[in-house]
Design a protein that fits this description.
The protein is of the alpha/beta class. The chain is built from 22 helices and 16 strands. It has 4 domains: 55 residues, no CATH class; 228 residues, Rossmann fold (3-Layer(aba) Sandwich), CATH 3.40.50; 53 residues, no CATH class; 123 residues. The strands form 5 sheets. A 5-stranded parallel β-sheet has the order 7-8-9-6-10, sandwiched between helices. It has a 3-stranded antiparallel β-sheet with strand order 1-3-2. Strands 11-13-12 form a 3-stranded antiparallel β-sheet.
């Protein structure tokens, strides 16, 4: 038998705590001898503080669940600290096909940046073992054929998602600062005794923010050459949200300047670059007619229309079901589906990941989460040049109907003024429409039946289109209010009745 003092030392708690446990009969076999408690030698520390007089006092058990990754685009952090939807099989599919340069076009907030950072961490050589971030992921079970690529390449990584400025000068300064950071990640190559003096000078000009526009435009080409020589292996080059500054240039009147710069920038990185293992780009649009990718015959484009990689951007239905079950809100499936499902990428039904995450995190409160993440410039530009026919079709979409449209994946912002019918192509790739039927045409375009994907997108149409119709005097404020009310309650019969005033 042992005293309270001896057991307190053994269990690492206070004498008073042990004494109170004895008084409350929480330690089996404890007996009071004179004024002191004697405790059996083999007695174990009580683990349930709810036990009193041999009876359990029931309390609700709080299950600890991982936080949701709202706005987290850092792969290492996302997969370790938050609920992570495993998209690592994207790497397997890529390594099976091995295209030299891949362009993934998807709407904003559909996981492009997180996936690109995942690719960076997987391929990038590092002083620390980064395989630990993949050993519990799907890619690791695919075999040595794929694991052998992990941590074996130098990587150049740039994201342009925040390059949003009102002038070309400010935009170029931002691109320069991003290159500073990326060159700074590769300071090790300055120790290369094979590095020529002019190369060291160039490298330091980038680091010190002294490089001019011409020098910045050749940064990818020069850095990839230096990395290849240092590591004996050509780098992987990743450029995320490549078209963000281009969209800003279109909206802010420096389109020609950004197009001219990007043409040289991408040419050095991806066109006939022998110092390139693989290249990845992401964006919303494929800007081909502007000759940004002029002569780049090794570019493989993967859009919302293609079946390849269709499940890796956004959440599949199975992934959403698992998430709802994990957070104990499976009963909210139908509501969530009506608000945030409806996209069709290739042949895969896709949910908006940003909205799903926010919906669950906000206590399953349905709101237009995605449309509030940025300005709806594409829709605003569409409405500025909409013809009467287009306006009527947009109105039909609001009523829950489908319309027939030609979808050209090579559409560019500038083409809106040349052919307003291109608005449907822009709306589709930007996430404001979905395809319900599609038929490939001889010229590579598609003849599609398109509609509004879900209630969230209907909300942005309501706001932007009703505002436009009011401005041009097509409807009255009373009619606009009735339409808004019917959209809010998802009553399409009521909507059609309100729309007869307009029609």
């Amino acid at each position: 038998m042992k005293t309270c003092k001896e057991k307190a030392a053994e269990w690492g708690i206070s004498y008073r705590s042990v004494n109170n446990m004895c008084k409350n009969k929480k330690i089996p076999g404890a007996v009071k001898v004179n004024s002191s408690w004697q405790i059996p030698d083999d007695a174990t520390k009580p683990t349930d503080g709810r036990i009193s007089s041999g009876k359990y006092i029931k309390k609700s058990i709080q299950i600890e669940r991982k936080a949701l990754p709202i706005g987290i685009s850092d792969y290492v952090r996302a997969q370790s600290e938050y609920y992570y939807v495993d998209k690592t099989l994207l790497i397997k599919d890529f390594l099976d096909q091995k295209p030299l340069v891949s362009l993934f076009t998807r709407p904003r907030r559909f996981g492009k940046t997180l996936n690109m950072d995942m690719i960076r961490v997987f391929f990038e050589t590092s002083m620390v073992d980064t395989s630990k971030y993949f050993k519990d992921k799907k890619i690791w079970n695919c075999g040595e054929k794929y694991r052998s690529h992990q941590g074996k390449y130098p990587v150049i990584f740039l994201t342009f998602k925040d390059v949003k400025f009102d002038s070309w000068a400010a935009t170029l300064d931002k691109i320069g600062s991003l290159l500073q950071i990326e060159f700074g990640r590769h300071m090790e190559i300055l120790a290369d005794d094979k590095l020529a003096e002019y190369e060291k000078d160039y490298f330091n000009r980038i680091l010190n923010g002294k490089a001019n526009e011409v020098e910045l435009s050749s940064a990818m080409e020069n850095l990839s050459r230096m990395l290849t020589r240092y590591y004996g292996k050509a780098p992987v080059i990743i450029i995320d949200e490549y078209d963000t500054p281009i969209q800003e240039g279109y909206a802010k009147d420096f389109y020609d300047e950004i197009i001219g710069f990007m043409r040289n920038f991408f040419s050095g990185a991806f066109k006939d670059n022998k110092n390139l293992s693989y290249g990845f780009l992401t964006g919303i649009l494929r800007i081909a007619q502007e000759s940004i990718f002029s002569g780049l015959n090794n570019l493989t484009v993967n859009s919302v229309m293609d079946e390849d990689y269709d499940q890796y951007f956004g959440f599949t239905e199975n992934e959403v079901d698992k998430m709802l079950d994990y957070y104990g809100v499976s009963n909210k499936k139908e509501e969530l589906k009506g608000w945030y499902d409806g996209y069709l990428f290739g042949d895969e039904e896709i949910y908006n990941p940003w909205s799903v995450i926010n919906y669950i995190a906000k206590g399953c409160t349905p709101q237009a989460y995605w449309v509030n993440t940025g300005k709806n410039e594409v829709l605003e530009d569409v409405l500025k040049i909409a013809t009467d026919d287009i306006t009527q079709k947009l109105y039909s979409l609001l009523q829950g109907e489908s319309v027939i449209a030609r979808i050209d994946q090579n559409v560019v912002y500038r083409s809106l003024s040349e052919d307003p019918a291109n608005i449907y192509s822009l709306l589709l790739v930007a996430g404001y429409l979905k395809t319900t039927k599609k038929e490939l045409q001889a010229d590579g375009s598609y003849l599609c039946e398109v509609s509004i994907p879900n209630r969230e997108i209907a909300a942005v149409y309501k706001g932007e289109i009703l505002s436009h119709l009011l401005q041009i005097g097509a409807i009255t404020r009373t009619t606009a209010n009735k339409i808004a009310e019917s959209l809010y309650v998802n009553d399409y019969k009521k909507l059609q009745k309100a729309c007869r005033v307009y029609g």
